[in-house]
Amino acid sequence: MNKLAAEHLTVAYDSAPVIEDLSLSIPDGKITILIGSNGCGKSTILRTLGRLLSPNAGHVYLDGKRIDRLPSKEVAKQMAILPQSPSAPDGLTVKELCYYGRNPHKGLFSRHTAEDMRMVEWALKATRMQEFAERTLDQLSGGQRQRAWIAMALAQETDYLLLDEPTTYLDLAHQVEVLELLRDLNRTFGRTIIMVLHDLNQAARYADHLVSVFQGKVYAQGAPKEVFTAELIHNVFGLNVKVIEDPVEHTPMLVPVGLCQCEGNCYWKTHSAQKSTT
């Protein structure tokens, strides 16, 4: 059993289920990316894995133990979570932000220790943010700001890094900057990374393990070459595509052809209609 896993999760908002009887095991030391259409439950899965949401049924297990039964500080020592749009107090510098990541390792009124300083300096170096350490967050570009938040998560010194759409609102260059950084952190330091991405080609390029979510359930999961097929994209997104090989990374790459124009009851139309009537 992998260290982070969910069994038979159901999560509902206002009694309407978003996730239903979902089981998922996260591969250790890999990059796992959740894909799926808007509203399918990707962010809900991520937030539930990180104990930001409590399931209505089922459980999340961390190292074989129910995560809801673990002390919050123990969870924070193993798992760092970045939401879609994190916020910080005005005037906070990058280095000050990083020190927030050390809170799970400190007592209530503890001062910064030598280990805190070492980890903050390491996190700044790993994210290439040393030269921006004394700048405030509002003085940074979008990509730099996202790297600062990742540095804070690294300073937290966890095995797991969970990110909800880390490239949202970034231009293409900054998207690639953040994704390359995350891949480098995974390859160099062995961090297990779980994230939600909307861009399917980026997901196929950077994932070791893809999880396709459809209507609150896992539709398919596995290596990108196994999962990323024209049939899956049609069934999950209602989009017709040609799947070719990425000429740089040799991963699957899709070329959109058009929206689903099927006559009759294709998988996507049938199951989308069923969900909308429940």
UniProtKB/TrEMBL annotation:
One of its GO terms (molecular function) is ATP binding. It is found in: Cell membrane. Pfam families: ABC_tran (PF00005). Residues 4-240 form the ABC transporter domain. It comes from the Bacteria. Gene3D superfamilies: P-loop containing nucleotide triphosphate hydrolases. Transmembrane segments: none annotated. It is a peripheral membrane protein. PANTHER family: IRON(3+)-HYDROXAMATE IMPORT ATP-BINDING PROTEIN FHUC. This is ABC transporter ATP-binding protein. It comes from Marinicrinis lubricantis.
